[in-house]
Target: Beta-glucosidase
Amino acid sequence: MMLQRALSRYGLTEWGGEDMTMSAEKSYELQDSGVLRFPEGFVWGAATAAYQIEGATRDDGRGPSIWDTFSRTPGKVHAGHTGDVACDHYHRYREDVAIMRDLGLHAYRFSIAWPRIQPDGSGPVNPRGLDFYDRLVDELLGAGVTPVVTLYHWDLPQALEDRGGWTNRDTARHFADYAAIAHARLGDRVETWTTLNEPWCSAFLGYASGIHAPGLADPALGFAAAHHLLLGHGLATAALRASGAEKVGITLNLAPVVNDDTAADRAAAEIVDGLQNRIFLDPLLRGEYPADVVERARRFTDWSFVQDGDLEVIGAPIDLLGINYYTPQTVAARPGEAGNPVFPGSEGIAFGGADAPKTAMGWAVQPSGLTDLLLRLSRDYPGTPLMITENGAAFDDTVEDDRVHDTDRLSYLDGHLRAAHAAIEGGADLRGYLVWSLLDNFEWAEGYNKRFGVVHVDYGTQRRIPKDSARWYGEVVRRNGL
Model:
């Protein structure tokens, strides 16, 4: 069905008349399939990350992070953008929480900036940094929004990077200390804690390919960083449990790997699945690294960074697996193809986009990939509750008469929520959905060039404008369904 009819069901036709209809070539149109109800108690919310929205990078004793350093390195971030101001959430958090309240969100996933709490990554605690998150948590609870804390969303204190960062085993121990500090201050009001956000990105974009901070490009460092991130998760989980944390989990960026189903293509897909998905899923949920990944990585590393007892620490039970899904990986066997640096050991494999509509990031829009992923996790790693902790899309939005008619984003979200519902019907233990992102923000190496928010931010004035997708999402939350 056309989007206009979907909006009319929610009384939203006044948002833009015919301008709200979707172009005919969109293959991911909304479907007229009646109201789809989600399970009772399903959690609806939104997510952000500290460096992407807070700004105030020099306020109240915050130390520098690797992203402060990286964004100031010429040529690393679009147009030389930095997170110095971002959305100024540090000073405008009350306004942002009011938006969440007005949308009826149940939960808000935000990250704590480690450099605000320990400017050098270890040692003395900065009380003013903790004070900010204290105020934020209280504001959320006062608005009826449940806080969900992520301890690490890529902003490692620069002082730790100067000592080797995640390639140094000591960083994992410092991370556990920081987790205990954060819980001691906020644990009386925060129930759910996630340790890491997307350790694959931290390890392989940051240390193996140089695309993200700290900008190093050595496959051996990428594998070492991946292990120490996982070890940091395990040690932090133990510290949080010892402090009385109720729910502890981790968030991974996962993707089904799509191929043309020839024997060679299936083999290529298995390699990439190992390098993106199983390299984290297996240690966390099975207590072991996948043998094929270990063998493939031996051309870069001897795995000597793995010590006795590490996998037992890493594989301790978790209460929640966060899933960040945007698009599948599409691969094909192609002898002679150079390896993709973000997947060390992927020589002979071509990476391409699926034949589908694309977001402004060039990512294929394939909601069915989310269904496949959730069902695969339920089948291969049963027993762990799942939550979609990020899902969303960047599109080239425009403001017209104080409105943002982001029909493509609205369609994207509708399609993926339907895909999530299909997975639940198929038996997936999916507990909630957090849209990425609440606000337009600093999009890492893309700077302010890409907008993922359901709320538009004018970076010059810091004015917030809820987009049509935000208003629609608020109705989904209210109805607990589509």
About this structure: Residues 224 and 305 are 6 Å apart (CA to CA). The longest helix spans residues 219-243. The radius of gyration is 21 Å.
